[in-house]
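Troubleshooting: if your tokenizer reports a length mismatch, compare your output against this known-good record of 190 residues.
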Amino acid sequence: MGNYASCLTSSRAAASVLDVGATDLKQQFAVGDKAVYPVHGVAEVMALEQRDIGGNTTAVYILKVLDTGLKIMVPTSNAGSVGLRDLITSKEVKEVYSILKSRDIPRDTQTWNRRYREYMEKIKTGSVFEIAEVLRDLCVLRLTKELSFGERKMLDTARGLLIKELAIAKGVGEDKISTEIDAIFAPAAA
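Known-good structure output:
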């Protein structure tokens, strides 16, 4: 079944809109909608299909990650539990910028590998606020010491996830968001 991140087979076309089905989510996604999938970032809903999984017909979203082209299948009933969520609102965009600008963070005395595990857990949540905290903390740490290879890679991951979502949410280019983030963490701003 190709490049899918999930191993689901036997497709039939579904209705144009399916309910997520998770009790903690109220949204539904339609073909063409943008959604955020944890760790991978912003994805477009390419299709809504019915798949035969273990003898049961299951409704699934077919997502295509914008940055990588990776295709992911998510059963609509599991969308909430895997962290699939809407793009952030304009109010949430402001909260993200507040987190990035905040410098009231406790001094970190952890080893780099403990920090790495903690930050990776935050990224895995898919929460834009947790990702913003990871980016902020690593950018602030970078001003005082050299980051490990793993920390630099994580900083790049968090930065990429935030830039893509903020650009789409604000309706501006990624270059503009990148410039704004660079300005927030310029050494003179610390």
